[in-house]
Amino acid sequence: MKPTLGDRLKYSFDKLMSKGLPALIGLLAIVSLIFISFIALVVVIFGLFPDDGNLDFAEAFWLTMLRTLDPGTMGGDTGPGFRAAMLIVTLAGLILVASLIGIVSNAFNEKVEQLRKGRSNVIEKDHTLILGWNRKIHQIVSELVIANESRRRATIVVLADRDKVEMEDELKSHLAGRSKTQIIVRTGDPMSVADLKLTGLDTARSIVVLAPDDTDEPDNFSIKTALAILNNPRRRTEPYRIAGEIKHEQNLEAAELVGGTEAKWILGEDLISRLIVQTSRQRGLSAVYNDLLDFGGAELYLADTAGLAGETFGAAALSIPNGALVGVISGEDVVLNPPRTHVLTPESQLIILAEDDDRLGFDRPATFDEKAISVSKNEKRKPERTLILGSNATLPMVLTELDASSASGSTIVLVDEGAVAPNVKLHNTKLEVKSVNPSSRKELDTLKVNTFDHVIVLASRDNRGVEHADARTLLILLNLRAMAKDTPHNINIVSEMLNDKNRELAQSNVSDDFIVSEQLVGNMITMVSENFEMQRILTEVISGDGPQLRLNPASWYVKANTAVNFNTITEAALRRGESALGYRIVDGGARSPLGMSDRVTLNPNRTTEVTFGETDSIVVFSG
Fold this sequence. Notes:
Layout: H1 5-17, H2 21-45, H3 57-69, H4 80-117, E1 127-131, H5 137-147, E2 155-160, H6 164-174, E3 182-187, H7 193-196, E4 204-209, H8 218-230, E5 242-246, H9 252-259, E6 263-267, H10 268-281, H11 285-292, E7 299-304, H12 313-317, E8 323-330, E9 333-336, E10 349-354, E11 385-389, H13 395-405, E12 410-415, E13 429-434, H14 441-447, E14 454-457, H15 466-484, E15 492-497, H16 500-506, E16 513-516, H17 517-530, H18 534-542, E17 548-553, E18 563-564, H19 566-575, E19 579-592, E20 595-602, E21 610-611, E22 617-622
Parallel strand pairs: 1-2, 1-4, 2-3, 4-5, 5-6, 11-12, 11-14, 12-13, 14-15, 15-16
Antiparallel strand pairs: 7-10, 8-9, 8-10, 17-22, 18-21, 19-20, 19-22
Helix pairs in contact: 2-3, 2-4, 3-4, 5-17, 8-9, 10-13
């Protein structure tokens, strides 16, 4: 059926109306001009003049327009014809002005709604851009706020496919107190090139990619987001700095192929499995890792050798008044705890544990108390028994790490409902599997927990939600604490928590070790986003190969009940082929069935004297 003239006019009108505010105001202006001109012509042609004189068309047009915009203008009009014409104009003007107000009001409301939805462009420079949303975002934003305290004007921009107001409220509720960092939130799809334009992508200092928690293939999100950034035909010429997490190792190669040199990926499951194993070996080690992997207190920095080129590593370790030297970067090699005779070159970079990079400096080698040093040999490792309660996707990696760090003849007992032995080759340990409920006190009693040296509680996150998995971990932990009252020796218990709030619920005066998965992975992503070199360094720090963090008895380094400073401890550690980071002081007055309350101090004041007891430890990189 052929459209009629009316159909065509209606269609043209609909298209015009859909063009928005400028088109609507233009249409209203044209209608007003035509109406005013028509009335002015009627007044002139029919002589509808006021009593005080004749009018030409221009004057009639002007008077008509004034009465259209302001109804009060006709109050002084005279002459019946002129008054009738101006009354019609005034009534029409009320309709036209009301229409204009309505159009502007609707446009204003639409703009407010657009702003509320977070669809306006961000015009910022040197900001941190977070793409995506998951449980780690609160930890990452909190750490970035701490890292930005020394920056004059810091901004964090978040783009996620969620409601803007909800995201803003949630972020504010998790930030403690006020901060100088400005947080800007936008709603959009991080995998969309068009939505990325909202974020000031090309002026961002660093980019963090967070895959959603509620998806079966989170790595696809991370890889596609990186593609949207790097393959944009209008991308900036200088390299981006992208940091993100890859959850499954089989996707790491594809992610590295996409990201190239512009992206650094954290393999979260590998990180957590390594930390669980290492902290299970010694009580208190989780506190050391927590301090190293956040921006509160001491953290790792890179510094040029400056005037120390040509000096040995040992001399340099005693020449840093406000930091602890732990390693060196030489070209592509990251070397933690090199020999004290290692000679520094002008191209070398020093890895230093310090409070802030602006406090780094070098001085002449410090003196130490020779008489207080008492270097002992390492104790030979003995076979140990490790109990693993619960299981998840990290279990094969946990078993592999445990096997590599255990003495020959050690035993691992895995307990979980429906547990089966993973397909991993173990060389130093024997694996026993018991398919029972680890949260049952009755079943735990049959395991004779007091015969184990180490206990690991894994969060069952593969088939349960976060809260359900943590609740199960808490129940297991409470049962272990109750059983520990009858245990003659302290058992090192490491519990994996998913939510940091649940860790707070589990804490008591008992000195348990906790690994908060989301928190530690989030911290590492944040550190890498701030400094790309940290990815290589932190990989070495948590690696099971090479030098490892240890809490060794203070008596291996200095004499008991003798006041010493950290310079003396540093020298004693160097003589043992180790690098000292700090110490752990145990409060003997707070004993409990599972251990003692304690505090770990990293990068202490180098001249403050401390007296160590038999239960105190020195934090070192050893091996």
